[in-house]
Specification:
Bound molecules: zinc ion
GO biological process, one term: carbohydrate metabolic process
InterPro entries: Glyco_hydro/deAcase_b/a-brl, NODB_dom, Polysacc_deacetylase_ArnD
Structural class: alpha/beta
GO molecular function, one term: hydrolase activity, acting on carbon-nitrogen (but not peptide) bonds
CATH architecture: Alpha-Beta Barrel
Number of strands: 12
Shape: globular
Order of helices and strands: HEHHEEHEHHEHEEHEEEEHE
Oligomer: single chain
CATH topology: TIM Barrel
């Protein structure tokens, strides 16, 4: 790990985090489509079933996106002031949209964590320390191995959502089989938490119209893609070299998750962004 400290400019940005929001909105968009969709960072997702035990140690990383090993910016104590931008109202049935970014000028990004195979006990502690919400997308096996762990991960906000029961490629399945995978997993979550999350992410980020219809049939109101990823303790961007307001950030329950979240905390602080609950931006009809 690098121990490089932030640049003068970065320190100034972090100082600004405590008081003055410095971020102005860049170009923002929301993806809503009814055809086949393939996540652009699906190479990251495609290896998620592999238990990677060495990748974090063996990769040489650029220093600019790494969190320092010893110091993180202080937790924000700013009173919540959002959502104040446009809030999307989306249907709770029918072919629900696929969303890779939230169209908002609010200085927020969203942390999403998939699968569940490696359950690092430091992760819920870190999220609690920094009061960070996390939106989880879990599969049956790892979720049922320790449902309480995932409840602790979402103790500071967020939700636990379906990522299908068995992590199969949905576009190879019939509509009814997709529904069993998507809605069956939501039912399982509902046996352990009071309210299962109303979002869905497709395995490998690959979905089609049948996926969107199946999700809408059981109370899910959006299929989430992503616009940035966290791997090996660094932030990887799909656009430019910074996070964009409204970005949905994808990472996984792997052995690099703790370092990944630290990297996101650090990069967000540098940019004056807050890691916010995406559920506030995608409410169910009738909610707030
Ligand atoms: Zn996955």
């Amino acid at each position: 790990m690098s121990t490089q400290r932030p640049t003068k400019r970065s320190r100034a940005a972090i100082a600004a985090l405590a008081g003055v929001a410095t971020v102005t909105a860049g170009a923002m968009f929301i993806t809503s489509r009814t055809g086949s969709s393939i996540g652009r960072a699906d190479s990251a997702d495609s290896i998620e079933l592999i238990t990677a035990t060495t990748e974090a140690e063996t990769t040489t990383l650029p220093s600019t996106t790494l969190a320092p090993t010893t110091t993180l910016p202080p937790p924000t104590t700013t009173t919540k002031a959002w959502p104040k931008g446009p809030v999307l109202t989306i249907p709770a049935a029918g072919a629900v949209p696929v969303i890779s970014r939230i169209a908002t000028a609010d200085p927020v990004v969203f942390l999403t964590i998939d699968d569940g195979y490696i359950r690092d006990p430091r992760v819920p502690e870190l999220l609690a320390q920094f009061k960070i919400p996390a939106t989880l997308f879990v599969n049956q096996g790892p979720y049922l191995a320790d449902p309480d762990y995932f409840a602790r991960v979402t103790a500071s906000g967020g939700s636990i959502n379906s990522h299908t029961k068995s992590h199969r490629l949905l576009t190879k399945l019939s509509a009814s089989a997709q529904r069993a995978e998507i809605c069956g997993m939501r039912d399982i979550i509902g046996q352990h938490v009071f309210v299962p999350g109303h979002l869905f992410r497709a395995p490998f980020g690959v979905s089609n119209t049948a996926t969107q219809t199946a999700a809408g049939s059981c109370g899910i109101n959006a299929v989430l893609s992503w616009h940035a990823t966290l791997n090996d303790g660094r932030v990887q961007y799909q656009q430019g070299d910074q996070l964009q307001p409204g970005d949905i950030v994808l990472t996984h329950f792997r052995d690099d998750l703790y370092d990944n979240i630290r990297a996101l905390i650090w990069q967000s602080a540098i940019q004056g962004l807050t890691i916010a609950p995406i559920e506030d931006y995608l409410p169910l009809p009738g909610d707030g």
